[in-house]
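Aim 2, interim progress: modelling of the TXE-bound target.
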Amino acid sequence: MPMFRIQNYLNGQLVAPASGQYLPNIEPATGQVYGEIPDSGPVDVAAAVAAAEAALPAWRARPAEERGRLLEKIADLIDANLERLAQAESRDNGKPLALARVMDIPRAASNFRFFGTAAPHFATEAHVQEGLALNYTVRHPVGVVGCISPWNLPLYLFTWKIAPALAVGCCVVAKPSEITPATAFLLSALCIEAGLPAGVLNIIHGTGPGCGQALVEHPGIKAISFTGGTATGRHLAATAAPLFKKLSLELGGKNPNLVFADCDLAAAVRTSIRSSFANQGQICLCGSRLFVERPIYEQFKTEFLRQLADQTVGDPLDAATKQGALASEAHLHKVLAYIKLAHDEGGTLLAGGHRATVPGRCADGYFLEPTVFEGLPYDCRTNQEEIFGPVVTLTPFDTEAEVLHMANSTEYGLSATIWTQNLTRAHRLSQALHSGVVWVNTWLHRDLRTPFGGMKNSGVGREGGLEALRFFTEAQNVCISLTGG
Ligand code: TXE
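Predicted structure of the complex, ligand included:
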């Protein structure tokens, strides 16, 4: 099979990087190189920013409805190419093809459709000072913005940033993760097909230090929307703050899953399997710390481990596969190191714990058994640090105060899930949890209008709905005297 060579999307064209250098693209399910990624650098970033700056006046001047129609056209093209995109996503990331078909790619289309239709409805405020003055607020597109995304939900998170930026009239220079660049490249071709004007969106491929850093530092980039690891987010913030750039940071999580004795146990177990292991546990919203009220602890554990047996690890292309490969070899070794740490910290292994072997074409893939530990203190490193893999801990609790303390004990505050039939407790606890997103008797239920993001070290700012549209704009207040001076 010929190498799948990815190109940059620069000023409406698919082009090679200025250096002519490429990086290998590895298929995690096989461990084999199957393509090449441009190793772009500051020269490519500067060309992309220049193209975006040139496109900006015409793009921001277009009626919002027209911009929205173009975004909807891209959404339609994503739908029309669903199978091709899902296959590319699965191959590039290692996730089950079945998951990419129902989650990643449909959501990417929804992102464009949602913000495309939101653009014409984006209204601003007016404040009247009776008899004195009328203030109205204009929200101008902030200009050329940078969008940097991770490898776990590649097209899903990439488009979640790009669509609102384009909707409000910004031009974009975007960098997908170098670990999963394929669907961003395929999106470039769909944008050309949709008739997106040259320079409005530019997609530059490369490493974080080589290409992402140049994007963050470029003086032409006025705002940066980033999703990725907390350590990278901290570095980005340190770079961008002295340059006074707007920053939206969606970072890691160590999310608690609180299961009370009065819950619907069948639903709690079923969904907790998903919230623990979906996408190989590589979703920032996965609930990796399961706290179960003592009266049902053993029952929950037994049923959870029983259902875990159905969590088939296998070839992502196989319809029976529930868990595919981890995204990279380095990530696999990181997660394996955490499994060793959990043993060292005195945890009892209840399931998994080893690299999984999948015979045939996937013999060298980066597979890991779904892994469960119990008997670890809530404040040990295994229970405090983001593992970002199919590894969870089970911990019993006796009181609401105790579980709240344990749930809130980490440096993170992205999401939390509560399982209870007690309405009062659900509301009381939701308010007390230090999490940007709380789910009650559900998980990963998303309404794109709602604010999305984390507290504490899980991030700064919120994405989603109006929050995203506001982020990519600069508010200007106009005050008109009603008295004539
Ligand atoms: O992410 P990075 P990594 C967590 C998870 C994982 C850890 C590290 O715990 O193990 O982060 O993953 C770009 N300037 N999450 O190292 O490095 C990079 O090229 C500008 C949580 O793979 O944060 C990529 O496009 N950009 C998470 C993006 O940042 C830079 C999802 C994310 O990569 C850069 C992924 C730099 N100096 C990992 N350095 C979530 N919250 O969903 C890197 N990048």
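The pocket of TXE is lined by residues 148-152, 175, 177-178, 207-209, 212-213, 216, 227-229, 232, 235-236, 250-252, 284, 331, 334, 386, 388 (CB under 6 Å). The chain has 15 helices and 23 strands.
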